[in-house]
Amino acid sequence: MYPLGYHIFRSRERVLTDNSLPNIQPFLLLLIVLRYLPFTMVKDYGVWRAKPVSYTFEDRSEDSHTPHLSLYFDDVSNFTYDVTTKLAELRNGFRHLQGTSEQRLGGLALDYIRSNLFSRASGRILPHDVDGADNDILDQLKPIIDRAISTEATVYIYGSEFNDGKGIHNVHMNQGNSGRWLKDNGVFQDGALIFQFEDHWEAVFIGFASQAVHTEDGPKRAGYPLPNQDFMTWANFLAPERSDDDKGKDDIVDSPVFITRALVNPPGPDQQPGTAPETVSLKNRTKDEIDLSGWKIRIKTGDTQVLPSGTRISPVGTKTIQTSVPLSNNGGIITLLNAEGFKVHGVSYTRAEANGTTVVF
């Protein structure tokens, strides 16, 4: 069993003022790991915009009976993703996303698998709190939160609002669960911490090592592990006890083809004579020819392009696909799915990057 997850509670502390962001309210950031509380589904999903002022963590001295491993992703330098434009326009407080038009591909809602938020191989499997430096979740979270407080950054917290409106929980991946947590599964309902600093953005994504790397799109069994038996977990994919070479080999098996570049917004009127077509370029990471028949390219609207029978990519070769689905000029998502529907690779780009030149990933 694993614990329910990270919880964040609203503060009643004094209000800090910020002339540049006058509508941001402060909050007390309290990350705790609860024991096995009954919970049947992820409800009241949304994003909370606030101002961090202080925090406290529950460490192993306070909870020594629920050891667990967590999946940790972060972008410590610069989180560049199109959703930040929408986030910056939000008012303070909690914004409900569940059941709205924002809970979809290209909306405000987050999905660790479908939104192409990070490179899967960059994840780390870490315990909650152990001796030593830079080797557990708390060691990773404290520096970024300290910087956010000291610089009066803005934070956007994704998760489920408490019934009393005084906090938010499920600030982690909310799909790929098995056993008693199956009913928590869904798509576009994942939690996260996204920080808006004065000159850049940073993000933290947390999941559980026991969750599946691939999940069902739905509508039936949305967010359920894929396949439904013997599925790959993050613990399998990123096992810390395995060598980098072994993990690299498994990464190539799971993602044999990468999206390397895209011509999103070629100069000239769209789909007119003399205007270059939009394209997506693929790279074969293996030494074998790969049959791409039935593979799909999916964009942020959810529209897909099926690659025709006989489409092949040579060993360690590249192939450029002319797209029949329009790539958004306002920032977008491009995902490559194999014939079985498994995600092979995914990328994202911002509006600024779609400026008439080739976007390199």
Automatic annotation (TrEMBL):
UniProt protein name: LTD domain-containing protein
Species name: Fusarium gaditjirri
Q: Which InterPro entries match?
A: DUF2278 (IPR019268), Lamin_tail_dom (IPR001322), Lamin_tail_dom_sf (IPR036415)
LTD domain span? 255-350
